[in-house]
Every structure is written in C-alpha cells, then in structure tokens.
Amino acid sequence: xxxxxxxxxxxxxxxxxxxxxxxxxxxxxxxxxxxxxxxxxxxxxxxxxxxxxxxxxxxxxxxxxxxxxxxxxxxxxxxxxxxxxxxxxxxxxxxxxxxxxxxxxxxxxxxxxxxxxxxxxxxxxxxxxxxxxxxxxxxxxxxxxxxxxxxxxxxxxxxxxxxxxxxxxxxxxxxxxxxxxxxxxxxxxxxxxxxxxxxxxxxxxxxxxxxxxxxxxxxxxxxxxxxxxxxxxxxxxxxxxxxxxxxxxxxxxxx
Amino acid sequence: xxxxxxxxxxxxxxxxxxxxxxxxxxxxxxxxxxxxxxxxxxxxxxxxxxxxxxxxxxxxxxxxxxxxxxxxxxxxxxxxxxxxxxxxxxxxxxxxxxxxxxxxxxxxxxxxxxxxxxxxxxxxxxxxxxxxxxxxxxxxxxxxxxxxxxxxxxxxxxxxxxxxxxxxxxxxxxxxxxxxxxxxxxxxxxxxxxxxxxxxxxxxxxxxxxxxxxxxxxxxxxxxxxxxxxxxxxxxxxxxxxxxxxxxxxxxxxxxxxxxxxxxxxxxxxxxxxxxxxxxxxxxxxxxxxxxxxxxxxxxxxxxxxxxxxxxxxxxxxxxxxxxxxxxx
Lengths: 255, 329
Description:
The structure holds 2 protein chains of 2 kinds. By secondary structure, chain A is of the alpha/beta class. Chain A has a 9-stranded mixed beta sheet with strand order 9-8-7-10-6-1-4-5-11, with helices on both faces. A two-stranded antiparallel sheet of chain A has the order 2-3. In chain A, helix 3 packs across helix 4. Chain A has one domain (about 1-210): 3-Layer(aba) Sandwich (Rossmann fold), CATH 3.40.50.620. Helices cover about 30% and strands about 30% of the residues of chain A. Chain A has helices spanning about 35-55, 70-75, 95-115, 135-140, 195-200, 240-250; strands spanning about 1-5, 10, 30-35, 55-65, 80-85, 120, 145-155, 160-165, 170-175, 180, 205-210, 215-225, 235. By secondary structure, chain B is an alpha/beta fold. Chain B folds into 2 domains: about 5-185, HUPs (Rossmann fold); about 205-329, 3-Layer(aba) Sandwich (Rossmann fold), CATH 3.40.50. Helices cover about 30% and strands about 25% of the residues of chain B. Chain B is built from 9 helices and 17 strands. A 9-stranded mixed beta sheet of chain B has the order 9-8-7-10-6-1-4-5-11, with helices on both faces. Chain B has a 5-stranded parallel beta sheet with strand order 14-13-15-16-17. In chain B, helix 3 packs across helix 4 (about 100-110) and helix 5 runs parallel beside helix 9 (about 310-329). Classes of the chains: A alpha/beta, B alpha/beta. Chains A and B meet through helix 3, helix 4, strand 7, strand 8 and strand 9 of A and helix 3, helix 4, strand 7, strand 8 and strand 9 of B. Strand 9 of chain A pairs antiparallel with strand 12 of chain B, so a sheet runs across the interface.
C-alpha cells in the first residue's frame, strides 16, 4: 500500500487560547506545537497498515517552515517520506486554497512515484476546523471519500472503513484509491522509539513552493467567546458534602 | 439567486435530533436575507419530516428523489445537494454542523465549486458575507468575510436552540427527481452495527466523568456505580484514554464526544480546552476536585473541593441510604 497522510501543525493550548495584538492569530509565544490529534492517529494508522501489508507512508503538510518538526515526528513513528508545502504568509490559507496546494502536490507526487492507494486526512483540524479540505481534495481527484473513520481494514479489493455514529458504527466498503477522514480513537499512537528518533534525524524533507489563487474566505478577527461569569457554589470540602450533593441531584430530578 | 435551502438530516427516514435546530437557524437567516426558507430531505418526505416542517411554519419543502438513494452516502448526497443548488439557483445551502451535516456540505460545495464555512454561530449579509464561526471546538471564535453571493454554511451543533412556532402551518412538498451518477453509489453505507441500545454518552441526562485524578482504570469502579444509580453514563478526559484506562468511545471533548446532559459530574478533571469544549453544553456542572483553581472548578456551577475517591463513595452511600429509607417507610 502506498499511503499519503496529510497533517497540520497546530499549537498545543492549555486552558485558554490567547490571540495576538492584531487579532489575526493565536498567540503562540508560550505554547508548544503538535500534530493535530486526528492526524496523529492517521499517521499511526498508516504506519500499522504498512507494517502489515508492506508499502510506504508519505506525510505531507501545508504550513510554515517550522512544520518540519511535525514531519520529523512522523518519521520517528514510522513514516518514510516527507513533503513540506510552504505557506510562509503568517496566516493559514482558506480551505479551498489549502486543498488546491495539496491537489497540486499530489498530482506531482503521483506523476513521479505512482498513485497513492489511500490518502488519509484528519476529520478536521484542531484549530481552524474547516471540515472540508480532505473532501475537496477527493472530489478534485474523483476518488471516494468518507469522514469520521474509526476503523480501517485492508482487503484484497479495497478497504472496509468503520464510521462512528451514536451507539455504534456504519460500515463502508471502498475500492482503492480512496480518501478517508480519520478520527482520534481509531488507535492509540505509539511513542517514538530510539530507532525512530534516529530515523527522524535522518529524514529527508522535500520542500515545495506553490502559488495559490487569492482565497474567498478572509479572516478578520479571532476573539474569545463571551463568557458568562459563573459563581461557583462550593458544596463542601470533604465527603461531608454528600447530603448537599444528593439534595442537588434530587432538585434536578435526576435521582 | 434566491432561497435558503436547509438540509434536514435523517438516517433511513429517522430525523436526526439536530433537525429542529437546522430549521430554526434557517428561519432566522431567511428573515435576515428576506428570502424564503426551503427545507430539503434527501429521499422520501416522511410524515415525521412534514410535521417538523409544519411545526416550524416552513411553507415549502423539497424531497430529492433518485432510486439509487437507498441509504446514506456522502458522495451521492453531496452530489444531490450540488445539483439542487444549480437547479434552484439557491442563495444559501445550509445544515447543522454534525458529522453528517458538515460532510454533506463539504461534498456538495466542492462539487458546486462554492465556498463552505463550517460551524458558524452567526451569518449576516450586507454586500458581502460576514460570519462568525467556531475554531478550537468553540473555545475561540473567528470572524470571516466572503465576497461572494452564494454560500454553503453549517451552524455549529447546539449553537441554536430548536424553536418551533406556537401554531403550525401547512407545508407544500415538491418532489424533484434526479438522475445522479451511479458511480457515486460506491460510498453508500453498506452495513450498520449497534453496540449499545438506548441512552448513549451524547444523549445521557447524567454523565459522570473521570480525569487523571482517578488514577487508574480500576479507579472508575465507583464512578460506574454512581452513574448506574443515576441511570447515567461514564465519560472521561483525554488523559484517561491516552493512559489506556478507558476506551476512546468514553472520551468527552473536542476530539471525543460532545455531551449536553442535565448534570455533568466531573471528577478529578482539570478542564483543559480539549475537554471543556466537549462538556460546555451541559446544563449543570458539578466539579469534584482537590484543586480549587482548576479550570473545571471555576467554570462549574457547583463544586466540591475534595478527593473524588472519598466524595464519590460518600454520594453513593447517601443515595443508598435515602433509597433504603424510602423503601422501608
């Protein structure tokens, strides 16, 4: 299997997300960065499939040059080839622009090395959450796409994918090549091993430049949602609070 | 170009819980734009669908028909909405931002080559579109503008409360027959597997969750017992799933399940953004935590500043004591 996984570098916030003075970006001065969680699981899934069925995992990201860090991390957990499509404008491209940049890169990668059997995306990115880049890519490539995937089995003809729904799952049976939007929970991503760390240092990153057409969607401002200030009622500071808690449960009619 | 076309989500004819939300948001946008709202069902218009439209005073609904639409399929449904968009010259195509809602609109907008803005909480048009949408699962908002006339929009799930009208009025149903490309049947649902009947984490009236503070997989036994007494479900934070203490299906949060119970009992959970956005739609929150400064505590309506390992068994004992009393009297 030849698998492409598209990932995004995102900040790793704690309990509050602050914005820059111009209100156009998240203030990342005191934040680390990570791979968007759904996509971290997509890389793990691809690595597991290739371990079972052979092949290779190419990881592609669109972002600033610092996104090399996320590609090197992918190298430490089993990915074998790496593409960084630079966007050094300091602000994310809109979903269509991002999709266009990926579509162009896929066309070149496939012309050089052959078709990808599977292209994995995260269901949505942790930060902007546009819910569409993978689907726009799939539609442009004319390939089937299903989002919300929490299980993939590779068969002779294609793949069986499980999509989580309330109380169970739906089963999709897709011929390859196919595009899947993966959700966290499909697996528990591995930690890098010593061997992985070495692979990460040696990984060769192919850098790509691209020109994208002006985007339709313009970001004007990032801001905090209006917070309703909550007066927390402290019911107690020990297990003696139990009667008050049960009173509350009775009051709410859940007992 | 005119009309607000709203996708009413259903699974094999059964309306999604978000269906009323979608119609309410569509009515508001239609009032703002001064253009009619048209409810859309992909497949047959069931009596349940028609009554919902009538309760919301929707004058016109469209049933999109094609013999190939035997079940949900993102590509087939997306293509159907894209074709409906061109056929009707719709101004707006919208849905609630559920997994399916966002997927249908992403498919449809890509096929129609129109921008799609997901998880909005407000949309206005005055020469250009001005929208406010959720980032980071709702912990941050983004104002965006688009210089286009037509647009695909999803409204963030739970951001609009369903508000049927006081008096229902008749809805006229128009059927539109399509001739969709058969190749798109490749991504129809093939099978369904039910893992749990009845209440689930996302629909439970009571959720008892544990975080890192629970300390182990075994530590969840008392939370299970409490949830059992309250006919609720057990949830957990991402730290818990990452430690392998519980299955990811129990995870409440941005990358897990969004819950909206009558009461959320959060035990030993610090309340990082990842978790908070999954829990913030809860009607009441009781935080049990040793740290009075924890985000979960400061955002909760009720809190107990103590060790969950002592408090949870005490709650169980108190409930059993009261139940014992009431059965003996």
